[in-house]
């Protein structure tokens, strides 16, 4: 992997309250583009390896409202606002329809996009996300983000003296440190905001808190998921945000597959919630399925 392969062409588009920014790769590629939607404390740099492995497709990946270089945008930060922001991105970049791939909370946003703007979505893939996560009994709503996100949330209240300190923090992360590569380092470096010695994560803690409590399927989300047209590929990581228990136990995925006939489930071996996209082994398992779906969607688009 070269340094150049990690570089995206930046864009900035008008949305409610200001400008949403992000990156895109392979802008001149023909056929259906891919709209890639990152997770709850992430940024478009989550998709570096994915984009490198799909040179035949235009890949568009925004920094969601309250994250990355879109962190100055005001609320509301709910899933429906994110979905409308994505539609605005497609409008501004001249894209009528896209194949949408969402990771983690980005998968929930992708489902809302398909519900609110179905004409813009040519197909949908959910990568270790998008299926409602039951709230544990007895856990208050304000405690849910900490329970779900662990160190990923902890960093939002921390400051760092320099970039080296921030890299060291992430190298200690059990789900990223052991699998460190150039893509992870680029993702971490992009996340920094502010100036030394008061550097901090670019993710807005208020935005994260809003979205964390939406992951249980409230507000009509479950109905939106159930109404999706087939096929919708769901990729499960067998290990979770701390490289231990999965975000989605096998039984929960099986339950949702039985409830929603459109879902086609895939187990991705030997990855966690992050490395399913941020290692070559993870993307190498996910992309062949997605590539085949996009090619089929391309054929269908050409026939209509």
From TrEMBL:
InterPro entries membership: AB_hydrolase_1 (IPR000073), AB_hydrolase_fold (IPR029058), AB_hydrolase_sf (IPR050266)
Any one GO MF annotation of this record: hydrolase activity
Keywords, comma-separated and alphabetical: Hydrolase
Cited Pfam families: Abhydrolase_1
Coiled coil: none
Domain AB hydrolase-1 positions: 33-178
PANTHER family: AB HYDROLASE SUPERFAMILY PROTEIN YCLE, MONOACYLGLYCEROL LIPASE
Protein name per the record: Alpha/beta hydrolase
Lineage: Bacteria, Bacillati, Actinomycetota, Actinomycetes, Micrococcales
């Amino acid at each position: 992997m070269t340094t150049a392969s990690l570089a995206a062409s930046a864009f900035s588009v008008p949305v409610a309250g200001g400008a949403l920014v992000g990156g895109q790769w392979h802008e001149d590629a023909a056929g259906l583009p891919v709209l890639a939607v990152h997770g709850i404390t992430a940024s478009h740099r989550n998709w570096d390896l994915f984009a490198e492995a799909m040179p035949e497709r235009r890949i568009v990946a925004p920094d969601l409202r309250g994250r990355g270089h879109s962190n100055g945008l005001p609320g509301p930060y709910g899933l429906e606002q994110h979905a409308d922001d994505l539609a605005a991105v497609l409008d501004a970049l001249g894209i009528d329809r896209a194949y949408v791939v969402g990771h983690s909370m980005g998968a929930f946003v992708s489902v809302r996009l398909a519900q609110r703007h179905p004409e813009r979505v040519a197909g949908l893939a959910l990568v270790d996300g998008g299926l409602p996560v039951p709230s544990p009994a007895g856990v208050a709503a304000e405690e849910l983000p900490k329970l779900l996100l662990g160190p990923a949330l902890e960093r939002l209240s921390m400051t760092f003296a320099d970039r080296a300190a921030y890299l060291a923090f992430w190298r200690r992360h059990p789900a990223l440190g052991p699998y460190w590569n150039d893509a992870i380092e680029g993702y971490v470096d992009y996340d920094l905001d502010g100036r030394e010695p008061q550097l901090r994560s670019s993710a807005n803690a208020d935005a994260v808190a809003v979205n964390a409590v939406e992951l249980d399927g409230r507000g009509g989300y479950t109905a939106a998921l159930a109404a999706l047209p087939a096929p919708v590929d769901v990729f499960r990581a067998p290990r979770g945000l701390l490289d231990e228990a999965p975000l989605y136990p096998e039984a929960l995925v099986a339950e949702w597959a039985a409830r929603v006939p459109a879902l086609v489930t895939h187990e991705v071996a030997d990855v966690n919630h992050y490395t399913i996209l941020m290692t070559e082994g993870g993307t190498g398992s996910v992309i062949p399925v997605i590539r085949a779906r996009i090619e089929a969607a391309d054929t269908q688009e050409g026939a209509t």
